[in-house]
Amino acid sequence: MKKIFLSAVAIVAIAFVTNTTVQAQSTEKTKMVGGAAMYPSKDIVDNAVNSKDHTVLVAAVKAAGLVETLKGAGPFTVFAPTNSAFDKLPQGTVDNLVKPENKATLTKILTYHVVAGNMDSKAIAAAIKAGNGKAELTTVEGGKLWASMDGKKLVLKDAKGGMSTVTIADVNQKNGVIHVIDTVLMPN
């Protein structure tokens, strides 16, 4: 009888926790990315895996062994290229990068898309204003990115002179913020 009672209590507790989680997520202020709601209560990886526009990025993060890092406490600011951004690279580039022998190069490229800290668009805009129209950001990879405004659009310039535009800003996560970008950024 005691086991049945404990089992019933456990089932009720699980149902309560599940229902509370669903209710909390339904009241969160989310943004839609790749057809999926991005929940501020979830980490970067747990949200990204649901975006149909970021399947290449998620596969690359897994191949580079960066999943646990991006699930960590952070905070991280991630400039997340879409699948179409990866499609702009020369044919075969992504297939080559995800090979085990190219893990170091892939890791370098991916960590170049990450800045330590939680920099929403207002913080980046303030840095741009303070820098007389340009902000220099140091990436986790150790390289530099330059942020500026093109009208009302936030743009990034990489170390090779390539330009990327933020298409969706301020996708809040429990361990940082994601800004969706339209072009892969390249370090030196």
Q: What does this molecule look like?
A:
The chain is an alpha+beta fold. The protein has one domain: FAS1 domain. Helices cover 40% and strands 26% of the residues. It has 8 helices and 9 strands. It has helices at 2-27, 44-48, 55-64, 67-71, 83-87, 93-97, 103-111, 121-130, and strands spanning 31-33, 36-38, 76-81, 114-116, 135-138, 144-150, 153-157, 163-173, 176-181. It has a 7-stranded mixed sheet. Strands 1-2 form a two-stranded antiparallel ribbon. A hairpin with a 2-residue loop joins strand 6 (144-150) and strand 7 (153-157). Helix 3 (55-64) packs across helix 7 (103-111). The longest helix is centred in the N-terminal third of the chain and has 26 residues, at 2-27. The model is unreliable at 19-25 (pLDDT under 50). InterPro entries: Adhesion/Biosynth-related (IPR050904), FAS1_dom_sf (IPR036378), FAS1_domain (IPR000782). Residues 41-185 form the FAS1 domain. Keywords: Signal. This is Fasciclin domain-containing protein. It holds the Pfam family Fasciclin.
Percentage beta strand: 25-35%
- Cα separation of the termini: 68 Å
Uncertain stretches of 5 or more adjacent residues: 19-25
The biggest beta sheet is recorded as: 7 strands, mixed
Structural class: alpha+beta
The helix/strand series, from N terminus to C terminus, equals: HEEHHHEHHHEHEEEEE
Instruction: Write out the strand line-up for the largest beta sheet, numbering strands in chain order.
Output: 4-3-9-8-7-6-5
What number is the mean pLDDT? 89
| Silhouette | globular
Task: Count helical runs.
Answer: 8
CATH topology: FAS1 domain
Rg over CA atoms, rounded to whole Å, is 19 Å
* Total number of distinct structural domains: 1
